[in-house]
Amino acid sequence: MADQPLGVRSCSVAAALDILGERWTLLAVREISYGVHRFARIAAYIGLSRDILADRLRKLENAGIVERRQYSEHPPRHEYHLTEAGRELLPVMLALREWGDKWAVDEPATELRHSCGHALSVLRTCRHCGEPVIHGSLHMVAPTG
Q: Distance between CA 67 and CA 29 in Å, rounded?
């Protein structure tokens, strides 16, 4: 890829960052994935003002990552739940957490444990051959089909 002609690359990472690439957006996704569904609780756990959170949740809803579900008619109140697209962010969130635990904090505040009881360590392997995914094993090609 480094040998290609210079120019802005069209890329799925850039497109994903257009939707998710802001701190408060990913923290809202984190809280919803933890089972925190109500607006006030999401705001309290991430320390964000109501107007900014409302904007981020609206953008996530428009992008199909969260959906609102009404839980009260009087007054109208909604909960926020991850859609299939939102649930598929789990590997991204786990990778960010693992990287942050290693490189961004002196000591992690919490530890994730798998249902087997052991501390979670995410493996990145090719689902076809089972080999580890590392920089040297990746090659960029044009999509087929």
A: 12
Rg (the chain; Cα; Å): 18
Give the residue, 5 or 27, on which the prediction is more confident: 27
Q: What pTM, to 2 d.p., does this model score?
A: 0.87
Residues 19-70: tens digit of each pLDDT: 999 999 999 999 999 999 999 999 999 999 999 999 999 999 999 999 999 9
Q: Helix, strand, coil % (nearest 5) of the chain?
A: 45, 10, 45
If you search the block for the tokens 């428009």, which residue do you land on?
A: 62
- Taking each helix axis from N to C end, the angle separating 50-62 and 39-46, rounded to the nearest 10 degrees, works out to 110
**CA 66 from centre of chain:** 11
